[in-house]
Specification:
This protein is an alpha+beta fold. Helix content is 49%, strand content 15%. The chain has ten helices and six strands, in the order ααββββαββααααααα. Strand 1 and strand 2 form a beta hairpin.
Length: 183
């Protein structure tokens, strides 16, 4: 039902904004294959483990991307320098979607906040993180043994090195590619 709510939201948006936001949605879903689509605060949002990771909205003269954190855009100042930003939103043109590369950085920064070192110490351990992405025990143990404890660690790892880890098979590699936003 929630994905349909986003469809209804997008139907109310005029062109070319609708097509732009539909493309942003497709790109977010390619980077967050295991997420819940919903409406949060009146706008489309994408949640992982109940936490809003990304969202977007149509404005009158621009579109907005919401990382659902006041610190993500600050962490990526050089990456978002060409855009107008507020503390919690990045504004982009009505006819030009955000690049998948930038979305990967934005989503990765938010996931690092949710699942990163602070979260590892206070709420969620690496085993629970990798389990939430559907990885089996051998793959989870291989990642932890290799020091890959967060999505940020995963994004910095080389795919060929991951493939060499004992316990990481083809299915796990495919899941890890989706988790890290790589092809």
């Amino acid at each position: 039902m929630a994905a349909k709510e986003i469809d209804v939201y997008l139907e109310s948006v005029p062109e070319p904004q609708r097509s732009t936001l539909q493309e942003v949605r497709r790109r977010i879903l390619s980077l967050l294959p295991v997420c819940e689509q919903c409406i949060s605060y009146g706008m489309p949002a994408f949640k992982v483990e109940g936490k809003a990771i990304a969202g977007f909205a149509a404005g009158k003269t621009f579109n907005s991307y919401y990382p659902h954190s006041g610190s993500v855009l600050d962490r990526l100042k050089t990456d978002v320098g060409g855009y107008e930003c507020t503390r919690g939103a990045l504004h982009f043109p009505v006819d030009k979607p955000l690049s998948k590369k930038l979305l990967k950085k934005l989503i990765g920064a938010k996931l690092d906040l949710v699942h990163g070192d602070v979260a590892l110490k206070s709420r969620i351990g690496p085993d629970e993180l990798w389990r939430s992405y559907g990885l089996a025990g051998p793959a989870r143990r291989a990642l932890i043994g290799a020091g890959i404890l967060t999505v940020g660690d995963l994004q910095r790892a080389k795919p060929q090195d991951l493939a060499q880890l004992q316990g990481i098979g083809p299915k796990a590699l495919e899941t890890l590619k989706k988790c890290s936003g790589t092809k």
